[in-house]
Amino acid sequence: PVDLAKRYFEEGADEITFLNITSFRNMPFADTPMLDVLRQASRCIFVPLTIGGGVRDITDPDGQHVWPAVEVAGEYFRSGADKVSIGSDAVYAAEAYWQRVADGVPPTDGTTAIEQIASRYGRQAVVISVDPRRVYVRSPSDAPSHHVIATSTTGPQGETFCWYQCTVKGGREPRDIDVRQLVTACEALGAGEVLLNCMDRDGTNSGYETDLVADTKAAVTIPVIASSGAGRVEHFSDIVDRTDVDAVLAAGIFHRREVPIADVKRHMAQHGIPTRTVE
Q1: 263: three-class secondary structure by DSSP
Q2: Is pLDDT at 23 greater than 70 in this prediction?
Q3: Which of 87, 26, 79, 3 minimizes the C-alpha distance to 52?
Q4: Which residues contact 141 (CB under 8 A, 6 or more apart)?
Q5: What pLDDT shows up at residue 211?
Q6: What's the pTM?
Q7: Fewest C-beta in 10 Å: which of 11, 14, 19, 169?
Q8: Are the C-beta atoms of 152 and 146 separated by less than 8 Å?
């Protein structure tokens, strides 16, 4: 991953995100390979680095050492990360937030990873990574407890409405909370950015999920990063023009060298979208 990230930096990437999808629960957290990846990367990469995956309370295999999420984040920062990305724990925190609202008690209590990390390191260091998927409905009344929007991607039974269901555990487990509920709660808790994926778009190269990005951008005041679905340079300018999203992220097309980063930046500049020049 370090060599790949270094290549992206040299090709002109403005930020680099490491999303750790592998569990290292059979070793002490201090020996987690991602810490060494960050140390090596920070020596040769001079753009912001974000690390995601495992930013939660962790107990070492021997049961003797418990790492609160804020200490996990601290180790990542000391190893070279500029931001941490929180996924599943952000969903659980948002669920608890809305439950407290329903119970008529203060919705924040300072106990979530988002609150603690933002309090110690600043909200600019906290990113929430959202992994939703479409749930089609025939009308908004079919999902009264969720934020339903008109969709430009018709459902399998001709549905023209959907809500976006959040997931945890790498998308394996759906939860009864929608993206609007998640991002507004997490902003209130102290998150500083939203990394917005879409499981329906992953690997399709068909473009970003415009309906979702536009709706999320309108729901929060913190920056939103669009992810999932980029396949050609036009997709980058299209999502910015149509949603005014703050940044765009891509992975597969850069991994496979299908689209050079320089071509994306050149295209964006030609369309009047400010980008850092690739020297």
Answers
A1: helix
A2: no
A3: 87
A4: none
A5: 98
A6: 0.95
A7: 169
A8: no
Parallel, antiparallel, or unpaired: how do β-strands 132-137 and 66-67 relate?
unpaired
C-alpha closest to that of 279 among 30, 72, 29, 11: 11
Residue 57 to residues 30, 96, 241, Cα–Cα distance (Å): 13, 16, 39
Band of residue 181 on the pLDDT scale cut at 50, 70, 90: very high
Indicate the pLDDT class of residue 27, thresholds 50, 70 and 90: confident
Sheet order of strands, 49-52 included: 16-19, 49-52, 83-86, 126-130, 193-196, 224-226, 247-248
Closest by CA position to 179, among listed 163, 159, 155, 200: 163
Farthest CA pair distance, the chain: 57
Q: Where are the beta strands (DSSP E) in 64-178?
A: 66-67, 83-86, 126-130, 132-137, 149-150, 161-168, 173-178
> What's the rounded Cα separation, in Å, for the pair 186 and 171?
19
Q: How far is CA 151 from CA 1, 115, 163, 215, 246, in A?
A: 37, 33, 9, 11, 22
| Interval 222-234: pLDDT, tens | 999 999 999 999 9
Residue 125 to residue 114: CA distance in whole angstroms: 10
Residue with tokens 């600019």: 124
Rounded to whole angstroms, the Cα distance separating 92 from 7 reads 35
Size of the chain in residues: 279
CA angle 133, 139, 142 (to 5 degrees): 75
80: left (phi over 0), alpha (psi -120 to 50) or beta: left
Q: Report the C-alpha gap between 76 and 215 in whole angstroms.
A: 32
Q: What is the pLDDT of residue 279?
A: 65
Cα–Cα distance between 77 and 260 in angstroms, integer? 29
**83, 126 contact by CB (below 8 A):** yes
